[in-house]
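Run log, item B.
One chain of 522 residues. Sequence copied directly from the ordering sheet:
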Amino acid sequence: MEQKIAGGRRLEPHGHANPLVRAVGKLPENFTRKDLLKFIQARGIRSIHFRYPAKDGKLKELKLPVNGLHDAEAILAEGERVDGSSLFKGMVDPGQSDMYVLPVYRTAFLDPFQPDCLAFLCRYLDGQGRPAEITPDNVLARADERFRLETGCELAALGELEFYLVYPDEANLYPGKAQGAYHEASPFVKWDDLCSEFLRLVSESCGGVKYCHSEVGCVESSPHAQAELRGKRMSQYELEFLPAPLQDAAGRILVSKWILRNLAARRGILATFAPKLTLSDAATGLHVHLALGRGGKNALIDSKGSLTQTAFSAIGGLLRHAGSLTAFGNTCAASYLRLVPHQEAPVRVCWSSANRSALIRVPLGWRGVGNLATRVNPRQPPDFHGEMFGQTVEIRSPDGSADVHLLLAGLAAAVRDGLSRGADSAQAARRLEVSSNVFNDPKALSRLESLPRSCWESAQLLKSDRAVYEGGGVFPPAVVDFCVRRLEEEEDQDLARKLALMPPRRKEEAALKVMAASLHCM
């Protein structure tokens, strides 16, 4: 039986979390149409659902009934037509709007809310059967291909998906602590059973889950005025994935968001990825870890566990383009209320090892250590020979409003540019290393460039930096123009100054309105 190492954990069909994998007896990347049709017939699948991202960053859906096995084969072989001018309004001309959506077999999963339905993530093709140029899935696919061709390396990513659950007041025998819920356990965190079910459903649907835990945020009574939030409790959680190829990483994030919203809705509560919900409580990030490989080995560290020149060059690329990357990772006005000091969110362009105040963090990566369990279990022999996924580089600016496909494509372009600049990029990174909390170091702050303070500023940086994203035909100019328009339409260019001039109560009211506008972002 074929085996594969993914994220340092050995995967095989037997015992796999995905019931479809267990039934077919193959890992997803080996699925064929014949395998899927056999499953459809044996399991009595009655419908096939296609899912694909659109202009707003959310997964869309097309439901196709199974009218017999031949019909199912036609669906899987030829896909279906969709209206691109509606899915990408303002980007696709209505006169040339037809597109095809084709299922990607390796993404197949049983719909967790409809057991007789088989779901797929899809790719867009144009009328000539070519990858549709402006769609986010194809932008990311081109970014991935260009990265491999130009660098000889492979880039993998994992997202840290943070979110809040918002729920009505209830008897609270075990109250939570504001800003103190990190890794808290039931009964001091609420809806723990929902999060456990979320963890299970995502693992069964798209796999690659590393863990789920409660996060810092805990709000006993929401200060918002509107009915969706007024007076309600809010608890923060995080689901983190294992590293995966860029296209798979994007799909996992979008499927998990879809699952969570549906799961929460069935419980009568709200799940939100809004970047910021109150001024004083923890914000919602979408930190992204990048793993860089060459020849099957981690290219970020050498045999001694030290960061390589390649690692410094990659970090340098991320720092060089940090400002314009916010155009993809921080897409609404509330995003820039999150990027403030003393909230474990970055403000200045710098990097550090394990320092959570920096924009780029190089976290612990099992460098120079192994068989750690023997340190606490002295009778256990050092007989584990697997490999953890090892060293990553984390960028901490993106948040829950991120346009996931475009963000990962942008990160690939930034790292590719850093590697192409080689020693110059590495030297720039070394100059921007910090060792202390930058918010408590005025000298460090004075020499570090600031991240954008608004969507408007982010849009202007994207305009000036667009060549790196459009290089090699990765981002079509129309996609960059769309991102600029989306940011400028927030009309927040003077928001920070206006808020700073307001008295405290009025400032909070104004900020809460901005935050509430992003409640259902992406």
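Observations after the first pass:
- The first strand starts at residue 4 and ends at 6.
- The chain is about 35% helix and 20% strand.
Flagged for discussion on Thursday.
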